[in-house]
Specification:
This protein is α/β, with parallel strands linked by helices and 301 residues long. It has a single domain, classed as TIM Barrel (Alpha-Beta Barrel). The chain has 11 helices and 10 strands. Strands 1, 2, 3, 4, 5, 6, 7, 8, 9 and 10 form a 10-stranded mixed beta sheet that branches. Bound molecules: iron/sulfur cluster. The site of iron/sulfur cluster (SF4) has 14 residues, from loops.
Length: 301
């Protein structure tokens, strides 16, 4: 099964999408922040991302879900900066402090090919939202160089519906790490009161595009939706609400990974309720909630 971006490339549609996305950068509304800055001229918006893509690292990742890692790893590319900005960010040196190297879209295309040549099972774009125009431009070049593995869109879920629609047929696997269900929590911890409303629409659109997860004979993901949720201390009710939403609006067949590795990093020390790791009881309760709601494809550690 070849990724559908090959079909879009052959029909010329992929090139059109690149041009649309590049236009958006001139008055940037790539994400729900809608800063309307001219990225092409070097103006910076909320995410602080410049025009050229900035990458902090790329490597075959063996710490992701087994269905992405397989034998040879998930070909992960970490993009610098972020459009959300959580106070507890585990990668704050990259997303808030801007550690990374600016490069051309051609270099980015070569990185994709390098990861494919290492045997990686997919190209895993981590925090790609604010550079998605440049990434798709790089993808166009990478296809010419022979890229043919699935694209994973590894995001916080804070996505504009208009931009997601431009990714239809390009992204094979959407992997949103959904966070806050309540607007007040989203405002407090990520300065994004509209996060729940925006992410609900984004999830529905992602699911419409790719559906439930499809694996190959070696249990490697080829296409579909993987929903992650980083369980936070004292916030289990947010998970419950999200799961009720997913059950009602998507399906209990959706692949769900409830992650237990929260650490109180960056500014988390300023918020007593999230200034600790989660405990065993909380994690077990989270898994029980998901099972009791009937979720069939839970990723268990
Ligand atoms: S991608 Fe960055 S500049 Fe563009 S709207 Fe989002 S936060 Fe603003």
């Amino acid at each position: 099964m070849l990724p559908s971006y090959i079909t879009l490339y052959k029909s010329g549609e992929l090139k059109k999408r690149v041009n649309f996305l590049k236009e958006i950068l001139k008055n940037c509304t790539l994400c729900p922040r809608k800063c309307m800055v001219n990225r092409e001229r070097g103006e910076l918006g909320y995410c602080k991302a410049p025009y050229k893509p900035v990458i902090s690292s790329y490597f075959p990742h063996f710490g992701e879900e087994k269905i992405l890692v397989g034998k040879n790893g998930s070909g992960t590319i970490f993009f610098t900066f972020c459009n959300l900005g959580c106070v507890f960010c585990q990668n704050y040196t990259i997303s808030h402090l801007g550690v990374g190297e600016e490069m051309s879209t051609e270099d980015l295309a070569y990185i994709m090919i390098y990861l494919q040549n290492l045997g990686c099972h997919n190209i895993n774009l981590v925090t790609p939202t604010h550079f998605i125009s440049q990434i798709i431009e790089a993808l166009l070049k990478a296809i010419e160089f022979g890229l043919k593995i699935p694209i994973v869109y590894n995001t916080s879920g804070y996505e504009s519906l208009e931009t997601l629609k431009l990714l239809d047929g390009i992204v094979d696997i959407y992997m949103p790490d959904i966070k806050f269900y309540y607007p007040e929590t989203a405002k407090k911890f990520a300065n994004a009161e509209d996060y729940p409303e925006v992410t609900k629409s984004a999830l529905k659109e992602m699911y419409r595009q790719v559906g439930n997860l499809i694996l190959n004979e070696e249990n490697i993901a080829l296409k579909g939706l993987i929903i992650r949720h980083l369980l936070m201390p004292n916030h289990i009710s947010e998970l419950r609400e999200w799961l009720i939403f997913i059950k009602k609006e998507l399906s209990t067949e959706v692949f769900i990974n409830i992650m237990e590795q929260y650490r109180p990093l960056y500014m988390a020390y300023k918020y007593p309720e999230i200034n600790r790791t989660i405990n065993y009881k909380e994690y077990q309760e989270a898994i029980s909630i998901a099972k009791n709601l009937g979720f069939k494809n839970l990723y268990l550690y």
